[in-house]
Write a structure and sequence with these properties.
The chain contains two helices and four strands. It is of the alpha+beta class. Helix 1 runs parallel beside helix 2.
Length: about 100
């Protein structure tokens, strides 16, 4: 399972990248034999103005299933990453259960 992290409008710090990677490996670790890739897109829409504008989009895909996309938005980027990781974990589990 390959995890790609893309940042737009936010500083791409190593701490954010490490946190997102660690959180998604934890959430999707049991599905790594089925998932080929995980793409995480992090963005700050309003820039320095603040507000609920930090976006986290997680897309997972595998050879035997259509891509699953989850979008989360929050004022805190770490919270958005946490929520997206939880939702993609549940969505992937549901999709794989249906395929079986």
């Amino acid at each position: 399972m390959r995890i790609a992290i893309l940042c737009r409008g936010i500083p791409s710090t190593q701490a954010i990248r490490d946190y997102a990677q660690r959180r998604l490996k934890t959430a999707l670790g049991r599905y790594q034999s089925v998932l080929a890739s995980v793409q995480v897109r992090l963005a700050d829409v309003n820039g320095p103005r603040g507000g609920v504008d930090k976006h986290c989009v997680v897309e997972v895909g595998g050879p035997a299933m259509a891509p699953i996309i989850v979008r989360e938005r929050d004022a805190d980027l770490y919270v958005a990453i946490d929520r997206a990781a939880d939702r993609i974990d549940r969505a992937t589990g549901r999709r794989l259960a249906r395929l079986r």
